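DM from R.C. (forwarded with permission)

"hey, sorry to bug you on a friday — could you get me a structure for this? deadline for the figure draft is monday and I only need the backbone to look sensible"
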Amino acid sequence: MDRTLLVRTPESIAFSYELAGVGSRFLAVGIDLLLQITAVIVLLVVSAAALPHIKLLLRSARLSGRAAFSLYEGLLIIVLFAILFGYFIAFEALWNGQTPGKRLIGIRVVRDGGYPIALIDSLIRNLIRVVEVGVGFYIASVISMLVSAHNKRLGDLAAGTIVVRDHPYETASLSRGWDTQVAQAGAPNFSARALSPAEVSLARRYVTRRVSLNGESARSLAAKIAATLRPKLGPAAATLDDDELLRRVAAGLEL
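My reply, with the result:
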């Protein structure tokens, strides 16, 4: 099966992604599961140790023994659910499509068009995870990934997402490097705030893939993307070449 996915943006710019395989995805889930189990064990130990104090607190609220226990049990179930399923939603939303397991394995969740996932995307795909875990503990997910053209589990089909191999991109280090170069070169100052998140994402996707392209392909891709961004960046952007412009936009600098 071809694991390369070609995505064409509305600007007619094509990006290729390497789809994550079943093995790497389940290895990432395994790591996340170990972290979740650890968190659950810690929670149970702490709650058991604090149980006498919790009982006193609930009794002071004039709850009966049965009502107090039901309240305690209900809160514990809510926290356990948050650990088991809120874990994925929170990390994917805050870490740009990654959980600790995905980051260690080097994979990432993105939308079908290659853009970063939003909170609603993570919410949908991970609510479906509840069903997938309940149906034979991910057996339905494995079957779905094997028959899907893009290795999608049921949650991905519902949310319109894919899981791809990640190309490390360190915004902080890139930004630090460019800060030095800008100070030395006295480059013009203009703002990338006029760009939409999708346009900034386009620049970042170029930066992550430029190292795998030959010189002519990189120049051609940079020219296409830069041509769509320059009109929004003002005259100062014209003094930068295409590659420099995109790297600075990707780094989130005041350009």
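R.C.: lifesaver. The CA atoms of residues 91 and 99 lie 5 Å apart.
me: no worries. The two ends are 43 Å apart (CA to CA).
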